[in-house]
Amino acid sequence: MPTHPTVEASDAAITCILRVCALDAYALMDLGSTFSYVTPYFALDFGIEPEQLFEPFSVSTSVGDPVIASRIYRGCVIIIQDREITIDLIELEMVDFDVIIGMDWLYKCYAILDCRAKVVKFEFPNELVREWKGNIAEPRVVNEFPDIFPDELPGIPLDRIINFGIDVVPDTQPISIPPC
After folding, report:
1. Euclidean distance between CA atoms 56 and 43, whole angstroms
2. 141-150: buried (b, 16+ CB within 10 Å) or exposed (e) per residue?
3. pLDDT at site 179
4. Strand order in 130-133's β-sheet?
5. Which residues contact 18 (CB under 8 A, 6 or more apart)?
């Protein structure tokens, strides 16, 4: 399961922002991950109590030693184009992503990943195909506010003098005294 910054350029993964339990999560859709995971810090705001796994298991990561997974958040809701889909997320200590979406959920959702175009198609039976785009190169904020961020930057800001000062209370002494 990749958890390294270079994963954004990977041929087997798509990074994205997803709504998970009504929260925006920085997520990785990863064809190399069997299960789906959530960091415990992100899961604190779910309002769902995790369950103990009947059989904890070891999860291999590309950045360190294996980690033992022992808790799961069941019935978390992900929203894809106004469609709510539940997911079970296994708690895993990680730093690069809030959520990793693995093959267990992608298979359940009839997902087809085009990792070159960074597009996921959800082909639920008897429904229209839902196409969803992940992050390609630009940060999400720039994409969402095109009227604020110009296509081309005007240049580097000019050098300018910045006045900096610290106001102190009269008759105060220095906190540390330099050695003699």
Report:
1. 18
2. eeeeeeeeee
3. 64
4. 111-114, 119-122, 130-133
5. 24, 25, 27, 78, 79, 80, 99, 101
More confident site: 15 or 172: 15
- For the stretch 23-39, pLDDT in tens is 999 998 888 889 999 99
Q: How far apart are CA 57 and CA 154, in angstroms?
A: 53
Q: Do the strands 99-101 and 130-133 form a parallel or antiparallel pair, or are they unpaired?
A: unpaired
Contact (CB, 8 A) for 67 and 92: yes
Helix, strand, coil abundance in the chain, percent, nearest 5:
10, 35, 55
pLDDT band of residue 175 (cuts 50, 70, 90) is low
Per-residue b/e over 117-135, b at no fewer than 16 CB within 10 Å?
ebebebeeeeeeebebebb
**DSSP class per residue in 59-72:** E--SSSS-EEEEEE
8 or 151: which leads in pLDDT: 151
Residue type for position 53: L
